[in-house]
Amino acid sequence: MLGHRYTHTFLETAIASMNAGCNLELSYGMRNNVFMRIPQALAMGNITLQMLRDRVRPLFYTRMRLGEFDPPAMNPYSTLDLSAVQSPEHRNLSLEAAVKSFVLLKNLRGTLPLHAQDLQGKRLAVVGPFADNPRVLFGDYAPVPEPRYIYTPRRGLETLPVNVTFAAGCGEPRCQRYSRAEVVGAAGAADVVVVCLGTGTALETEAKDRRDLSLPGHQLELLQDAVQ
């Protein structure tokens, strides 16, 4: 709120946040943070003690439900160790979540889905800076799993009964250095072309916004070359 000039001081921000129903501040470990002004706001009468209690109650209710105040022996989460991380059950759940969360914006002529039985003997090209680069596939707050668990588009498509060729065209999302010949060579010899483009955390994250939605660097040129 302060950064967007909705308020001018931490005190104003604390008052506005409390009155709007906010009860948690992500302060990055700052000792001098917004919610440290709550006692001052309370003393000035800008917020009431009842409002403060109403904001605190769900926080501690959640912490109690998570067992933070129980003896460790009563907390089922205390028995979990690293063996539970990336276990087959969790990886299968992650796969299910990924499959069910795809967003299809357009499907001209019913091109999708691609069926494995229809691809036998076909040539498939997967191109673009996101085609086989595990480092660019994760978002701002995503934990990065071990490389052996990461399936890039290329690695996933290579599990199909089809001849897969690959061409990045450019090595990273900024796509400043682009090899047109590499992309045209792969796409021109294919029956099906999968183009993998985007931005990634190198170009936009929280507090690092872009001025437009255009594809960075030569990515649009890469797409046009693949289509042509």
From TrEMBL:
Q: Which Pfam families match?
A: Glyco_hydro_3_C
Q: Where is the signal peptide?
A: none
Question: What is this protein's record name?
Answer: XYL2 arabinofuranosidase
Domain (Glycoside hydrolase family 3 C-terminal) spans 103-226
Keyword Hydrolase in annotation:
yes
The protein's UniProt keywords, in alphabetical order, are: Glycosidase, Hydrolase
MF term (GO), any: xylan 1,4-beta-xylosidase activity
Give the species: Baryphthengus martii
The organism's place on the tree of life at top rank: Eukaryota
A GO biological-process term: xylan catabolic process
Checking InterPro entries in the record gives: BXL (IPR044993), GH (IPR017853), Glyco_hydro_3_C (IPR002772), Glyco_hydro_3_C_sf (IPR036881), Glyco_hydro_3_N_sf (IPR036962)
State whether keyword Ligase applies: no
